[in-house]
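Pasting as-is:
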Amino acid sequence: MSQGGHSNARVVIAALAGNGLIAIAKFVAAFFSGSIATLAEAIHSVADTANQALLLIGLRRAEKPATVLHPFGHAVESYFWPFIVSMLIFLLGGLFALVEGVRDLLAILGDHAVESHGSPYASYAVLGVSLVFEGMSFRVALGEFRNLQAGRGVWETLMHAKDPTIPVVLAEDSAAMFGLAIAFFAVLASHLTGWHGFDAIGSALIGILLAAIAFFLAKRTHSLLIGEAITEADRQAVEAAALSVEGVERVTQLLSMHLGPTNVILAMKVGFDDRFGLHEIEEAINDLEDRIRTVLPHMRYIFVEPDSRYTIELDEARPSELPQPRRRKNRSGGQ
């Protein structure tokens, strides 16, 4: 696994371990307290645990080598699985919490019997401990997210980062911390007032929060899944590397698509010195590819086509009119 993959895996494993233990504790607390908000948080933690497992699957599968059927490799797996994760957050976490909260609230408002509530102290203890563990996981994810920022703002990084794994984990941990706070105050309000509608409202609010997070993640990962171009900074670096090659006069077209965070298809139309012959153009293209990969190693697949105007001129010219190869200087400066 690549260095970036190891870093991502460390964050995901930390979140997986924390969420698994927290889910068990929340279910125990929900059983003894009867709190629907705590139960919603338990389901939320189950969804998060499943999500981390899916993210690990995506990281592993993305490293599989290219095959005849998939000649560009499997890097797109790192976009597919986070998209599935966003769907699970919505279905397992958001919808359950929202439906259960609304159902209980309607029952309370209609003076219908709801499940009896036990002692809230189990919820207080578990929610407090869960907040500590979620905070630890959040700290790990935040550290990696800051490395991902590279001087950009938070929103810009979320919207333009080509690696969704860290933003997904960070969004999940943020939602978990806000959800725990909502559940805690919902249980507290129900305890102090004796009206369990606050508990139901807390569950509904957690559902809305998770649905909003899921919508954002689905929208972002969907954009990556269908193919995004390289960033403007990468584009400028590609053009600068190309124009530094001897004989390259212009870049007339540049198309790109991220297959994964570190796997990019780059297609270019390049205008060369009209005096260059076929072999010199081939050498220049090889030099161009080497320079781009030196600066931007994630440009895995580079396709360069000579500028169309130059190609037409070659096709229409008579053999005697074709540009003759120019003798190039060797490294020592001789002819």
